[in-house]
Amino acid sequence: MPIIGPGPDDPENDGWDPRWEDQDTPFRRWLYEKLTAAGFECAADAVIMYAPANRYHGLDDTQMGLIATLTGASYDTVRAAHKADLGAWSREQQLRDHPDLAVLDADLDRIRHRT
After folding, report:
1. Most buried among 18, 34, 69, 99, by the most CB within 10 A?
2. In total, how many domains does the chain have?
């Protein structure tokens, strides 16, 4: 029997965007800055794990508490960074869904494929 583990092809990851692994987001920048300032040696690895989780799955109380401990920030500060990132993501989605931008995107794709 195959083992279904966490991965982008699993049904629970419908809508997973692989760009999230390295996408520059407000939370990713905040977390990297705080972990680096705290002297955390694996800051880049932690950011790769927590930044996409912040947007895709959300962060539970345990994860936010761990991030607060690792960064030396308060739980409320972590929560504020989390909410600010989700707010930025919502604004990005609204822009992407704008009909004029969809037309522009299609036109840019057409131009790119032409060259």
Report:
1. 34
2. 1
